Amino acid sequence: MPGPSKQLVKHLTEEEIDETIDQAQSDEEPRLVRRLCLIKNVYLGDTVTEAATRVGVSTPTASRWIDRWNDGAVDGLRPEFGDGRPPKLDEHQRERLREVLERHQPLTTHEVQRLIEDGFNVSYSQRHLSRVLKDLGLKYAIPRPESPDRPDDAEEQLEERLEAALDDLDDDAMTDGGVVVGFLDEAWPRPTDNSRRLWAFEKPTIQKETPTENFDDVVFGFYALNGTSVVDCKADLSKESVGDFFPQDPREES
Asked: So which domain of life are we looking at (predicted)?
């Protein structure tokens, strides 16, 4: 049986309903999408029962949705949150959120979700939250490790020391392959992932921590400015290990 028909107020054209459904999908409002689809099906000639079957609800529920549509159009179909939770942040709340994020950045997506739920009683899916945070000007990136002992003028110091070192070198030695200039670094590889992305207004940084668990060998890296860079594992940080690392001769040009 096709079921009963019901009078429907056509607040919107079919094209406008399609546009409203697309917008609700973009805003990740699945319950509103479902209700709008039911209304559209009735627009197209379905009985209440037929329209209800298409979207997977009972006929009485579909009838209530149609009544709400008749009384309030799209706004009448929006879910009523029984716990008083609004569907999204308003402009004033977004500004408050921006201030909170500036104080607590960098944060994971889950941490931001919890912060919004606890502070504003609003829930966002990760996909929708990502759009909100980008609109607020935040960036989502893998944090750059930064030593807690790093001086504020570290880049200026590096530039000065590099210029001083280059001034002490003979120009011919730099061009005939006699001298290779670069940077030596060491690191203890960790078995844990350190690539989790974080939200921040600028490219996020995290302080380096002394690992509680790492691999046995230390990794040496020589990053050449005028030759071939070299990376190798050694047993420790002793002078012998450093000396054993450099005979690999980074002077060979790539």
From this structure: Archaea
Residues 153 and 183 occupy one common structural domain: yes
Q: Tokens representing 40? A: 């559209």
- Which pairs with CB-CB distance under 8 Å and at least 24 residues apart come from 45-48? 47/2, 47/3, 47/4, 47/5, 47/6, 48/3, 48/4, 48/5, 48/6
pTM, two decimals, is 0.39
* pLDDT value of residue 247: 63
Burial class (CB in 10 A: 0-12, 13-18, 19+), 220: buried
- Structural domain boundaries enclosing 121: 91-137
In a domain, 82, yes or no: no
Contact residues for 195 (Cβ-Cβ < 8 A; gap 6+) = 142
- The lowest-confidence range among 86-100, 169-183, 196-210 is 169-183
CB-CB contact of 40 with 14 (8 Å): yes
Residue 84 within a domain: no
192, 172: one domain: yes
Contacts 24+ apart (CB under 8 A), 59-63: 59/3, 59/4, 62/38, 63/6
Residues 65-98: tens digit of each pLDDT: 999 999 989 888 886 654 444 557 888 889 999 9
Examine the domain organization and report whether 207 and 235 are in the same domain.
Answer: yes
Q: What is the mean pLDDT of residues 97-118?
A: 86
